Amino acid sequence: MSKQNPIRCTYRLQLHQGFTFQQARELVPYLKNLGVSHVYASPFFRATPGSQHGYDVCDHNELNPEIGTHQDLRDWVEELHRHGLKLIVDFVPNHMGIADLGNFRWRDLLENGPASPYARYFDIEWSPIKPALQNKVLLPVLGEQYGVVLESGGLQLHCNEDEGTFAIHIHGFELPVAIRSTIPVLRHVASKMTEVPDELLSIISAIDHLPPRTEATPETIEERTREKNIIRSRFKKLCIDQPEVLSVLNDVLAEWNDNTKEESLDRLDQLISEQPYRPSYWKVAAEEINYRRFFDVNSLAAIRVDLPEVFENTHQLLFQLFREGLLDGVRIDHIDGLALPAAYLDQLRQRITECMPGDATDPASAVIYVEKILGPEEALPQEWPIDGTTGYEFGNQGMNALLHPDYAPAMTRTYERFIDERQSYKRIVYDSKLLIMQLSMASEINMLGTLLSRLAESHRRSRDFTLNALTAAIREVVAAFPVYRTYLVRDEPPGERDIKVIQFAVSLARRRNPALERSVFEFLRSVLILNPDQSPPLNEDMRWAFVRKFQQCTGPITAKGIEDTTFYRYNRLIALNEVGGEPGNFGDSVETFHHHCIQRAKDWPSSLLATSTHDTKRSEDVRARILALSELAPAWSKAVNSWRRLNQRHKTLVDGVPAPDANEEYYLYQTLVGTWPLHEMNADELAVYIKRIQEHLMKALHEAKVNSSWIDPNADWDQAVEQFIERILSPKKNARFVTSLNEFANRVAPLGAINSLSQTVIKLTVPGVPDIYQGTELWDFSLVDPDNRRPVDFDVRSNGLAAFKPTPELLDQWRDGQIKLFTIQRLLSLRAEHPDLFANGDHVPLHVSDSMENHIVTYLRQHGKQKLLVIVPRLTSTLGFPAIGSCWKDATLDVPGGQWTNILTGATHQAEASLPLSELLADLPFAVLINVAG
């Protein structure tokens, strides 16, 4: 959906109990002065208590009380509007948090199973592979196997007399008990009373006459819910009116919970087995879980937002906020998790347009962004009624523009010699995706195999395909997928793009598996791409059930296999290991970068441009510094090999193997160089830094799944790596290494700063809408979450914004980060002054004389008589720091004639056909010049 929107720049804020609506309100004047137009807030709907991110939403129709009230939100938005700013919210339509049973829908489902009014709400397979789970939900909530937990007293039956309900308590949380299964408990109570109250017997009879869970028509669900609530009210009143009932009940519960008696264990086990859920050891989830999750996170259950009633139920508050004028846009999380992304977005756009108040019914008045990770050569579907993505692809395009492919061989040699192993990125991706399908997401693949087997059984020509062969084919095709997912729609012919993706994946899978019968792959392809003359004919309901789940599985498997496994295994240059990136590709030509910009201006001029987000593995400044290692390949090779020798004595043998291994150690050294502070640390600061690096390496080890993992942590290995980090970074224990690291990091840091400034200028001037992640206006050397969610010192940023030093001083004192803040503020002011130029201007690459063409990225933004000239440096290690003035020698830049004014320095330049770079870059290593007269 290509259109202009009144959006200049977004600023991402992470809201949680430590940063509320009120605190965000206090920040508004600063954001106004910085020059942003929209605040882009993390989800602020009710989430699991204590949530630091909001993606574990428990109720879409309530605000998170830990963040603030509706009035707090209104006050914040009114303050935004007073300063000319607007609000975009991050929205989560794919799943809900279920760790907290404050999620009343999930609690009702656990109590009533298929008879719950929310049975269709969640994406549950009520007829799974395992017969014992028929009409049950597998709940992987136990720390040990079920029998061990039960027999140790870890499962206890309780009564909440204030509500008239029963629950199973498990280590600090509770699971509801289906009302019919309480009959044995109540009969046991009656048996112990000398005079049984008629009301108790009546309650037991009423429970016995409730419609069974298997009768799940709308009428029986309504009747069951109504009668159940009446029965509970009666039981609550009985406990109040006749205390002896409650007293006997407590005695009975004590008997049932006595884990020293076999009879009591049998009773409790029988009651638990009658629930519409099955508590299990958490590791069972990988193979047997029967509800769709967000990736492999058991505490996030997927919902069926493709169903009209679920869509309406989950979006009530969102639409209300639009109607009230509190929202001007929405960012949709994990769009690829939905069954029908295009249909969802069509409906969302229509409803938001209807909700916009006053004269804001023009679709261009509200922005919709999607979190969509595009694969190499993949384009965002043009038919989606949105404004673009959240910008992961731009972050990778910008990095690759600052990196030269010619540096790849040297960096590859250093890496492979260090780890003593040849590496193939594509092979690691393949192995990692298979690993995910064998471990954490095996249940999803097993279910797909079962669905495909049922479909094959429906016709004589395909019924001889075995379940194992079909499941293997699915696994191999998913492993070969070149993108996150396809977008096949029932009763619509497949698009050309989807056909190509499936053909490619099936062909590659077939080549990789010559021993697996070819016809199995052909059958799978015929199911995914249904031809009009399909033979054998397929049952469309069964086929679509498979296709829907298949498409919802490929994305999470790809994400877990690449982002959360491969990116921690393939460590040649970890700056490239970023969401939406492909580390196997080492840099692009500047021409390729310009091509992306021109295409974005044509197709998605309002798409976001992100360099740091809440999901990036490393901040933009960390990546910019690590990128510079490629320019110092010989020095880097010498340094890491020296460090390995210095630090060998600090390793610990774990099962005869030194920890960390070489690949982990190489990853660590890049991380240290990328995050090493720009000032000398005192003892307290060093302790905090060491802790941050240890926590990051623990995450990296567990994501890599080589020597340790989340599912099966290797405590000895983890401890050895933590000790290694503490020892090598101790000035007292390892002064030679700390000195060497400090010297090398200080050599790389200026190059990283130039890269970061180039990246910043590009983001703020190319086609698209720049997005700033909280705190990154100054240097920010954060790592993946939770490190990038630490508190931001906005006072420092606000004070810096109030009084900038002259540009020569900013450059001389670059370590304080003020030069980055200054650049952002000036360029955002420029965007405010010339909105048409940035919203509609063409992107025109410019020519630099041959002597410096590899060291410059330069282009025009042009709209009518307005022209903007942008010049940023790249590969500056051979130019010296800070790459200004005479280092550019006699290189010239071809520019349109006229007077150009540098909006960063105020300098003016009169051009006829070209200008010398030494003049344009006399004061700063980058320049942004405006020519309004034409």
TrEMBL record:
Pfam family, one: Alpha-amylase
BP GO terms, sorted: alpha-glucan catabolic process; trehalose biosynthetic process
Gene Ontology terms, MF aspect: (1,4)-alpha-D-glucan 1-alpha-D-glucosylmutase activity
SMART domains listed in its UniProt record: Aamy
Residue ranges of domain Glycosyl hydrolase family 13 catalytic in the record: 17-512
SUPFAM superfamilies: (Trans)glycosidases
Signal peptide location: none
InterPro entries: GH, GH13_cat_dom, Trehalose_TreY
NCBIfam families linked to this entry: trehalose_TreY
PANTHER family for the chain: ALPHA-AMYLASE FAMILY MEMBER, MALTOOLIGOSYL TREHALOSE SYNTHASE-RELATED
Name this polypeptide is given: Malto-oligosyltrehalose synthase
Native source organism of the sequence: Phragmitibacter flavus
Gene giving rise to this polypeptide: treY
